[in-house]
Specification:
The chain is of the alpha/beta class. β1, α1 and β2 form a beta-alpha-beta unit. It is elongated, with a radius of gyration of 26 Å.
């Protein structure tokens, strides 16, 4: 059977991920062993749920969730029909928003809790019967939510590979090898969903030739990272990459050290975004996980934000890392609700990536250094063997 989710709620500042909620609800049905039953979920505002609360329960004012079992109050013969329906869950998004702020919880996690609570009512749990019943229902809720939220419930996060560090190795000798264009092709064949390069003003790694060839050869998606300076903007407008990511750029830094201060550069960045929009190029802004920056990115018309994960990756201890993770999760939720598409990256490696990838609001991760560094070791054995094979062949020739 299916989960039927309908939304009677409209708010420009709140975006509901219906696919995510449907998938979570379906997972809950499986956990409760009623996956063969249908379930209806309706998201409404306080006004509509107040009417339902008054009309059916004779209670005034809004509530967070109502549950109506299928056939509840109907003729008993209805149960004889070959229909497997659990019933209806009605949730007030207005109340859920207030509760999510009160409990410092992402909106979609709050909505998931309300779906879980409503579903358990449909299955016969009732916290109003007694203290023991309340404890039993609370324990079951916690059990279900722990299982549900510990695993990702929508499609796998995309991986985009930054090949700047291949160019860094090349530039160290001023030659032509290794070629980041060839590296990009290998990454795509290995399953990467996109290629990322940063064309810096000082051309310390990626150079103009690389970007032009990549524009011609990349089969997935080319994301051009760039500072908002006139020369690089002109190159982007000429090449028309699949998207651009505006990042801060300092000559003295080894790599990008933090997010854009969008809030204090709104006018300048808005002009750049407008130029790209007119050329059909979507723009992402690389920002720290900060409410001011996310709101500013939305206000000036960005299509994406890429959330800077550096503080999370570089945290000194487990407690600090958990705090940074929660900040990223909250900001990703805020950005999604505002209508932005959400990417993340910087400093992610083989130990820190999994938790960020498990966030349902993040579509894609941009990772470069960790993969290139690992490749230096995982590919070194074969590189040595290939060179030895050449030497053996040469020895036979002589």
């Amino acid at each position: 059977m299916t989960v039927d989710l309908s939304i009677h709620y409209h708010c420009q500042d709140c975006r509901i991920n219906s696919r995510l909620l449907q998938r979570r609800a379906s997972a809950l049905l499986r956990e409760c062993r009623v996956a063969d039953h249908g379930l209806s979920i309706l998201l409404v505002d306080d006004q509509e749920i107040s009417w339902l609360n008054d009309h059916y329960r004779h209670k005034s004012g809004p509530t967070n969730v109502l549950s109506f079992p299928f056939g509840g109050g109907a003729d008993s013969s209805l149960s004889l029909l070959p229909i497997r329906e659990l019933g209806d869950i009605i949730i007030s998004v207005d109340t859920a928003l207030r509760e999510s702020k009160e409990f410092k919880q992402p909106l979609h996690d709050r909505l998931t809790w309300l779906i879980t609570h409503g579903l358990l009512h449909l299955l016969g749990y009732d916290h109003e019967l007694s203290e023991a019943d309340a404890i039993a229902m609370q324990d079951k809720e916690q059990q279900l939510l722990t299982r549900l939220l510990s695993s990702r419930s929508i499609a796998m996060t995309h991986l985009a590979i930054n090949v700047d560090h291949i160019a860094t190795i090349r530039q160290a000798r001023g030659g032509v090898q290794p070629d980041p264009v060839a590296a990009a092709a290998i990454c795509e064949m290995a399953g990467a969903a996109g290629i990322v390069v940063h064309l810096r003003e000082d051309r310390r790694h990626i150079i103009d030739r690389d970007v032009r060839l990549l524009r011609e050869t990349v089969k997935t998606k080319l994301n051009l990272e760039m500072g908002a300076n006139k020369e690089i903007i002109a190159i982007a407008l000429d090449l028309k990459p699949d998207m651009v990511t505006l990042v801060p750029e300092k000559r003295q830094e080894l790599t990008t050290e933090g997010g854009l201060d969008v809030a204090s550069q709104k006018k300048m960045l808005a002009k750049t975004i407008d130029k790209m929009r007119k050329a059909g190029i979507p723009v992402s802004l690389f920002v720290d996980p900060d409410t001011r920056q996310v709101k500013a990115a939305h206000e000036i018309g960005a299509t994406f934000v890429e959330i800077h994960t550096g503080r999370y990756c570089n945290a000194a201890d487990a407690k600090a890392r958990e705090q940074e993770f929660q900040t990223i999760a909250t900001m990703a939720e805020e950005a999604y609700q505002a209508g932005l598409r959400v990417y993340a990256g910087h400093g992610l490696d083989y130990q820190t990536t999994a938790r960020i990838a498990a966030l349902d609001t993040i579509e894609e991760l941009s990772i470069g250094h960790a993969i290139i560094a690992r490749a230096a070791f995982t590919g070194l054995d074969q590189a040595v063997r290939d060179m030895l094979a050449i030497l053996r062949e040469a020895d036979r020739i002589n």
